[in-house]
Amino acid sequence: MNGINREIIPDPRPSLINRHLPNTPQVQRLLRREGKAHVFNDLKTLEQVTQTIIKRGERTGINDEDDDYERYGLYFSEAIGYIIRVDGSQTPLYYGEIKVVKATGEYHAIPRTSPRRTS
Q1: CA 116 → CA 24, 28, 61, 96, distances in Å?
Q2: Rounded distance between C-alpha atoms, residue 90 and residue 106, angstroms
Q3: What is the mean pLDDT of each successive set of 10 residues along the chain, which is 119 residues long?
Q4: DSSP label at 53?
Q5: What's the whole-model pTM score?
Q6: Whole-angstrom distance, CA of residue 23 vs CA of residue 10
Q7: Which DSSP helix (H) or strand (E) runs through 107?
Q8: How many CB atoms sit inside 10 A of residue 30's CB?
Q9: pLDDT of residue 116
Q10: Spatial distance between the Cα atoms of 72 and 64, rounded to a whole number of angstroms
Q11: Where are the beta strands (DSSP E) in 1-119?
Q12: What are phi and psi of 46, to 5 degrees?
């Protein structure tokens, strides 16, 4: 079965959205701390990716009983974002993930290179 078939709500913390949008203080902080950040092309892309994953995304993970999150994802034919590095270089990203807190149903979207694998 594809899509997310339970009630979910957007995480109310703007910092989770802003850490995945270019030119935000949260991204600048990630660049300083980690040397890179995964960002969507823009807010419109983030919203489109989120709606597409909710409708057609696939649940990912092998053994997520030990994880506090449900993860759903989908590959896209066009780049939805990029990894930006502290040196300014970029790598396009084609995979989007929605991470849902199991206990509350709160979610946020993340651009990634591929599904997160659990074991």
Answers
A1: 25, 24, 7, 11
A2: 30
A3: 89 90 95 97 97 95 70 96 96 96 93 77
A4: H
A5: 0.89
A6: 22
A7: strand 106-112
A8: 19
A9: 73
A10: 12
A11: 9-10, 36-40, 58-59, 69-75, 81-85, 90-93, 95-101, 106-112
A12: -55, -45
